[in-house]
Amino acid sequence: MERHGQKVVLITGCSSGIGLRIAVMLAEDEKQRYHVIATMRDLKRKDNLVKAAGDLYSKTLFVAELDVCSDESVKQCINSIKDRHIDILISNAGIGLVGPVESIPMDEMNNVFETNFYGSVRLIKEVMPDMKNRRAGRIIVISSVMGLQGVAFNEVYAASKFALEGFCEGLAAQLLSFNVTLSMLEPGPVHTEFELKMIQGMKEKEWPSVDPDTVNYFRNFYLPGAVDIFEILGQTPDHIAKRTMSVIEASNPHFHNLTNPLYSPILALKYADETGCLSVQAFYCMLFTLRPLMNVGMPVLKYLTFGFMRKWRISPN
Ligand SMILES: NC(=O)C1=CN([C@@H]2O[C@H](COP(=O)(O)OP(=O)(O)OC[C@H]3O[C@@H](n4cnc5c(N)ncnc54)[C@H](OP(=O)(O)O)[C@@H]3O)[C@@H](O)[C@H]2O)C=CC1
Ligand SMILES: CC1=C(/C=C/C(C)=C/C=C/C(C)=C/C=O)C(C)(C)CCC1
After folding, report:
1. Ligand 2 pocket, residue 144 CB under 6 Å
2. CB of 49 closer than 6 A to ligand 2?
3. pTM strictly above 0.80
4. How far is CA 25 from each of CA 32, 35, 54, 112, 287, rounded to the nearest angstrom?
5. Residues 303 and 223 in one domain
6. What are the binding positions for NADP(+) in this chain (predicted)?
7. What percent of the chain has pLDDT over 90?
8. 48, 89, 286, 291 - which has most CB atoms within 10 Å?
9. Which domain holds residue 14?
10. Based on the domain organization, do 293 and 230 belong to the same domain?
């Protein structure tokens, strides 16, 4: 187990998607600068990762069990690492939740917060004191554009990522005095199992306790819109992994790291108008009246964004 001179990186949620790709990309580093501890809550799901790592498995990439929802599992995993020494922590594990709010049981909402918000907090709390002591370390949190901008029918997921953004914004300032950097990655749509669960899994679902208008808006407006957004803006896990690598390698990493410039016009609406009316109205129009235009492509979305800004007499700068 070669570790000498290598940076120890711990990543959560590596059984699939973004976590898997980040783990493999770091393990493949030509200069072998990273000792990657790729964790997952269920080791029975490690086959895809092991296959993707190939010869690097047990050389630069190691697999360990870690469930971000369990104090015991987090402690056990961190205690199993030599001197508990982690140079780079990548908090990636997360789950989505889509659908009309009135149909979602409170325990499902709790589970999203327990995983996306408390899962990252639990991990950071366990690793940060050692980083502070050593006056060195890097923490990267995979947030989402939905941590900066709410999206209809994703209210609870967005709330969990907003919570994470708020928590980390405070912490990032505190950590600077300990020479520890904290950076958020805010991807837009990425083609992973997450997409399948958030879109495909929703198509056949019944909503017996929800009024027919809301079901109609969800099925016939939101879902086709989300399909378009994934088609037009969707990135690959490889793209997110490359961006993560550049944050790791930056001498002064940024706090926010939006991975998808095509999503920027949507976010610009929010920052252009402090009353919030512009983005709420624009989202309303994009969802209910203008969605068919979106599959003409992103230039249309950009045009619409600036159109709204002109209408509201707001300058883009
Ligand atoms: N895909 C997208 O469009 C976007 C995703 N993101 C964020 O990216 C991150 C990764 O998602 P992505 O790769 O797309 O989706 P995947 O569903 O492919 O991966 C999610 C990973 O998180 C793991 N996970 C879930 N719960 C736990 C837990 N309690 N403990 C440890 N691991 C857990 C899953 O493990 P298991 O296999 O056991 O379920 C899986 O490995 C998430 O935080 C997500 O919110 C952000 C923006 C866009
Ligand atoms: C932008 C936009 C929409 C959908 C956005 C989606 C679906 C974004 C998904 C982001 C993801 C998956 C982030 C993960 O963390 C709507 C509602 C169709 C209305 C028109 C504008």
Report:
1. yes
2. no
3. yes
4. 11, 12, 12, 28, 37
5. no
6. 13-41, 67, 161
7. 75
8. 89
9. 7-259
10. no
Average pLDDT for 195-213: 87
- Residues sharing a CB contact under 8 Å with residue 184, sequence separation 6 or more, in sequence order: 140, 141, 143, 147, 164, 165, 168, 255, 256, 257
Note the ipTM here.
0.98
Would the CB of 222 count as within 6 Å of ligand 2? yes
Domain shared by 208 and 268, yes or no: no
Q: Same domain for 158 and 194?
A: yes
Q: What is the pLDDT of residues 143-201, one digit of tens each?
A: 999 999 999 999 999 999 999 999 999 999 999 999 999 999 999 999 999 998 888 77
Task: Please indicate, yes or no, whether residues 137 and 149 belong to a single structural domain of this protein.
Answer: yes
Domain count, the chain: 2
200: annotated binding-site residue? Answer: no
Ligand 2 centroid, distance to 62 Cα (angstroms): 34
Taking CA atoms only, the protein residue closest to ligand 2 atom 4 is: 226
**pLDDT tens by residue, 275-288:** 999 999 988 988 88
- Report the nearest-CA residue for atom 18 of ligand 1: 17
Same domain, 238 and 279: no
Report the DSSP beta bridge partners of residue 39: 64
Considering the domain architecture, whether residues 255 and 268 belong to the same structural domain is answered as: no
Written in H, E and C, the secondary structure of 108-125 is: HHHHHHHHHHHHHHHHHH
213 and 168 inside one domain: yes
